[in-house]
Amino acid sequence: MNIQPIAMPDTIEKPVHCSDTEWEQRVKLAYCYHLVDFFGWTETIFNHISARVPGSDGHYLVNPFGLNYTEVTPLNLLKVDLEGHKVQESHYEANPAGFALHSAVHGARDDIHCMLHTHTVPVSAVVQKKRGFSHHDFYGAQLYGRVAYHEFEGITLFADEKSRMLDNMGDKHILVLRNHGIAVGESSIEKAIFLLWTVQRAAENQCAAGALGGEDVEIETSISQKCASLTEKLIRESGFANEFFTAMVRKMKDERSLPF
């Protein structure tokens, strides 16, 4: 199946100062915010999704604080530096709680161009447990060996926590924020949201199974390792994530009216 790239919206015009590559990233990130709301993963006006500005030196895009995810558009996304300072004029401000995590990762991990942070009920429940994520269901098995853990230090506002988060994250792309939520990062917006979807499904399954009586059927470690390796290879070497993202945007557009 030949999946066509996401079309640029024709309801708003690209600003003259914005490059084609930045505009494309803005459109995808705005769609990503709307998808997170579409999936029911928002935390009202809180939490963040960020994406690097292609070709820039340490600049990334993030949501204006105070807007619902459904109000985010390619135009109102903020462009900030690694200190959270706006590098492009906007009457909106950003939520400082996002900078410790997002700026730390964007400043240290060249392989991560998009970061998503959520704390849905299933995810928050799983990360509160000492066990963390189980690898004994279809989605949990795909996360085997791919999850890092960071102990809760309160609201992530302070710069001194950055180094500890990065140390705990290592080379992983999934960071459990204990007693808090999840952060995932990937080399593209499409790959990042597909990874978050996998994490969310694993958390939902784990919570549902935990609520049932009876003994779990456990998956052998070798099988979980195989599932995780295969999933990573599919995402990295195929257009699988792009097809997922494009399909979800089409579905969302069929069911909702977007402001762009």
TrEMBL record:
Domain of life: Bacteria
Gene3D superfamilies given in the database record: Class II aldolase/adducin N-terminal domain
Domain Class II aldolase/adducin N-terminal: 27-207
Pfam families named in the record: Aldolase_II
SMART domains, alphabetized: Aldolase_II
Family according to the record: Belongs to the aldolase class II family.
Protein name: Class II aldolase/adducin family protein
